[in-house]
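thread: overnight batch results

M.L. [08:02]
morning all. the overnight job finished for the chain we discussed friday. pasting input first so we're all looking at the same thing
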Amino acid sequence: MSEPPSTIPFTKMHGLGNDFVVLDGRMGAISLAADDVRRIADRKRGVGCDQLIVVERSDRAGAFMRVYNADGGEVSACGNAARCLANTLMDELGADAVALDTAAGKLEASRDGSGMVTVDQGPARTDWRDIPLARDMDTLHMDLSVGGRAVTALNDAVGVNVGNPHAVFFVGDVDSVDLASVGPGLERHVLFPERANISIARVRTRDSIRVRVWERGVGITSACGTAACAVAVAAARRRLTDRSADIHLDGGILRVRWREDGHVLMTGPVATSFTGILDGALLDGDGS
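M.L. [08:03]
and the structure it wrote out:
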């Protein structure tokens, strides 16, 4: 950040343990370099988070949500953060519905008074160009081998883009997969020019799926909203489930419905952990 202010207020929020530092840039622009994001996201020297969110003004929605992963890279979408920010905007407006602008498009959000927030993540995209993949292939059964050799035991994936690129693997036991070992290589597989979020899923019933997630630029997370959406779409495409399912993540349950018009609706809880002030020394890189 160039000449950062001495202090910046922030809010720490989370959706099922997938946590965010939220900065409000509507009253004054906040420009973050990758190093700034990494320092704030550091769980020992900074505040700690999976994603950093900057709220900006928007001419076509309640606000624009800019999303950075913990590694400092900017991404298009974050489902859990969208629910959290939408709930905050609805509180500000005294409303139960709001539109949220993102790099992935405009999202519609609503709440029902029970503490649950629903976000329309827009249409799921399944063409290889839209995920995107490095070459033309069937996204319902993606071959991740290189030179005819399997990179890992996980090879047959479903590709989906729900604001971010996702690869979904269906297995018999999600806990038997060493996600910390295979996640980094799969995220950066040559098939994914923009890297990919990796989900390991087991279908329990026609409306229940157990999922573990490796998020690109973050690592293993307790929950990922767009991954939950991607898994639900992938399972329905393979006819393993119906078009609505409870997605059981490490941090809790998200309800996902893939409508006939292609839009994906995700419903789940939101929470605010605490508020605080970022010291300018942290953003200057001088924090101890």
